[in-house]
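The freezer alarm interrupted the setup, so I double-checked each line after restarting. Inputs confirmed:
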Amino acid sequence: MTTLQSQPNHAADAHGTDGAHDGAHGSAEHAKYPFLQHHFDTPYHQFDSAKLGMWLFLATEVLFFGGLFVAYAVLRNRFPEVFSYSSHYLDTIMGGINTCVLILSSLTMALAVRFAQTNRRTGLIICLILTFMGAVGFMVIKYFEYSHKIHDNLVWGTTFYVPPHDAIGEAETKELSVAPTTSITLNPVNPAVFAVPTLAPIPAVDASAIKQASRAPVGLATPTQMAHAEGLPTGEHDPSFAHPATHLVDKKMPANSHLFFAIYYAMTGLHGVHVLAGMVVIGWLLKRAIRGDFSSDYFTPVDVGGLYWHIVDLIWIFLFPLFYLIH
Amino acid sequence: MTTINISQPLDTAARPDNYITHTRGFMSWALTLDHKRIGVMYLVSVLSSFFVGGVFAMLVRTELLTPGQTIPGVTADVYNHFFTLHGAIMVFLVIIPSIPAALGNFVMPIMLGAKDVAFPRLNLFSYYLWIFGALFTVSSLLLGGFDTGWTFYTPYSTTTPAGGVIPALTGVFILGFSSIFTGLNFIVTVHKLRPPGMTWFRMPLFLWAIYATAIIQVLATPVLGITLLLLIVERAFNIGIFDPSMGGDPVLFQHFFWFYSHPAVYIMILPAMGIISELISVHAHRHIFGYRFIALSSIAIAIFSFLVWGHHMFISGQSPLLNTLFSLISFSVAIPSAVKVFNWMSTLYKGNIVLNTPMLYALAFLVLFTIGGLTGIHLATLNTDVHLHDTYFVVAHFHYVMMGSALIGMIGGLHHWWPKITGRMYNENLGRIGCIIVFIGFNVTFFTQFFLGSQGMPRRYYDYQPEYQIYHVISTIGSYIMASGFFLTAYYLLASLFGGARAPANPWGGRSLEWQCASPPPFDNFATQPRVGDCYDFSAIRWDDKEQGYVVDPALDPTTNPRLAAKNSH
Amino acid sequence: MSHTATTSHETGGKNPGAHPIVGHLVPTWLLVFVGTALLMLTAITVAVRYIDIGEFNIVVALGVALVKAILVCLFFMHLRWDRSFNTLVFIVSVVLVLLMMAFLIMDTRQYYDSQFDGNAPNVESTLQANAPGAPVARFKPYSP
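Predicted 3D structure, all chains:
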């Protein structure tokens, strides 16, 4: 038989594992802590609830991206040759640098939480600024990556097969400004190769060796596409002319390569939007930190904002190998 | 046992200062953080949408009176827009937010003895997301409409010339986030704001249902979000992920869509089940039978809901392996659902049943849900479904579940808590008549459609063979009867606001916490922390003539009378 | 009680009254150590990309990503010291994604050939094989 009135004032014991509030704390706590909302009993109660709320939100973020990861898995399972070939158009070095930038900004965010917990305002502000710079840096690198791709007409959907400036002949002779990256071939039987890596010819994956998607969706294609498939003359300027054409620059691209870039832009684009949202969150935290809102009593916004920023990092940790690191 | 002993009686007298009169002016409502006001705003918005969706339903039914064109000007194309808007409005704007966001918002924190939900600002934000989502969805009407059906199946939805598809998708996307934030808020509220003494297995069953619903809202809705986003991108930029002519996969869209939309069916039905548990127990004045089974079956349904989405896709080209798996798992959903129905029946057995309006709605629910549930088994059976898929049989089935169960449950709950929300009693006789008219109209409308469907009439068709006409005529007449029942209901509910008798704190004899505060509740719900006991123990409840309502008699209450507690423990 | 799990071991532990809330205070060295480990793992995984080890390329890439993700969750996101329910929420969301992925891959692998060449899924060959007197297939029977 426990009556809560017999337990005076400390929150710690009353919060059992299920975290229900105890109701025994009254106006004293609210007078002491101005940030404490009226329906919470103690600052800890409020902090704990905010954390659970944030984790639930992170779960929704995981499922939100999860849909795209599932789409990725289905497409990659279906067109493995497309993924292994097209992946070489992504710049691993830039992607790697971006990964490091995000990891470092995650580190500064974690440090920011620590500085807030220990009442060190200057450290908090510096860390938040560094985190913000990380976000900016990430977006800048991403901008260069995207603009290279778009310059090479490595874009989404039907436009993948349409010359950007309606200049077919010109595009055919155009050099790639971003060459597919080189690769070291390792023969596991002979360790000596590992010591003296040989540079493989460009492109790294020999297109002719890749199993091409042998069947085109003729049954569901538009009349133009069917005519093309049967070798009849087609209107090549027709924008619906999509398949089974090849990319204008790289004729060796396997069929359906546009799907790789579609899912690439979908996933990294959505991630980029999350980075932008993260910049807003960090900016808001920075403003409040400068105003001096946070202390060891009240750092909940820094903590939950940090959780959000870490999930952005976490998603990139998976995006990076899935797009950039396909051998 | 953990209780707080309070010496002074709870202040249940109706006071001039309640949540409605606490502050005044438009802005005090528009920017309120009070869960009760947000609940009321949701209620008004949802019921208005219900009216709009109902108008489209009437138009659809009227158009189907005769083969070919019935209403002048309603061509096949216009008809497509009608049924699409009817479906989209009813699903996304009405049923999904109806119970959790409207009634749940109002009742849940009071049931918990809390002052508010865990995140009041987020709560208001969800409401405005709902408003924006609704505006986008309805604005699609002006921007060319959308005729894809509420399911937005590709490749039709990516190629249809209707101009309102993208606004509608955006609207539903935003509504999804409104739903997510409501669910998130409720999970945290249930976890963190329960009062002392209210362990998990002492929560009212409505809270269990809301909690299970919230789990689904949080875990399933994001997938709808990303699906719609992909569809918007597909339609706008033709990226090809769902487009078979570009190597994409339209079945993938259906998988994505139903991964959310099947759990969404349980977002609709679970809270209604929670309401029915309350209604049946309170209005039969009998302790709920099998409390733990009802509570845990809610969670079981929530878990099962994620494993059965493929039963919507038996003839979509889904592989035989998955067809079999999904058919099998779908049958298992019948178990927790039946557990609930049997427990409700057992609660009624030898209960002191009062046949007032909420009870009549609860009984209507039992009948309609049983029919809806059992026909669901027909549809979960693989070979039967090949015949019945996309016929009026399916239409009838899901109207029995979504309207006959979810909405009827919602309206029952509305009557149950109407005195609490408004502080007024409605006309009980009109209420009973309204319920009976709706029940008859509903069955005439939709039971007929089972025949129609099993004879092969496909859903969503504008034109049909003359031999189906008799069924369509009966169904349309039924829908008119049902509409008149709803108009009657709207009339007496609105009339009660102006001329209704003042409601006592506890008009029905309920025991859960919301009946222990005044009607309408004061601004911060409870001046003192209320006492938490067994919320289905009605032994201490007696009628009080002075109050014109029920009161808890301390002499009969085991939590305050130690001798009774000792006796009861044996 | 469980509250000890969320009390700081540095300040809160010594002086429990001073900070009524404090989530877990992670030491700076640990954060920097985890950050360094993450950077090194990134370097490793990039290096492995240039080496052909067949099927293991993707295994290594995802394995390293998983280790990195766990490090971020446990230390940067304080899950190691947080309520286990928060971990449960997160794990459930991941499990649901994996469930959906497994079901969909299982499914698409079986049907996607039928989307090409105008093939209906197995209908003609089934009719031909199982039903005596069934109409002779007008189309080329589906063969994987």
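Quick read of the result. The CA atoms of residues 268 and 402 of chain B lie 7 Å apart.
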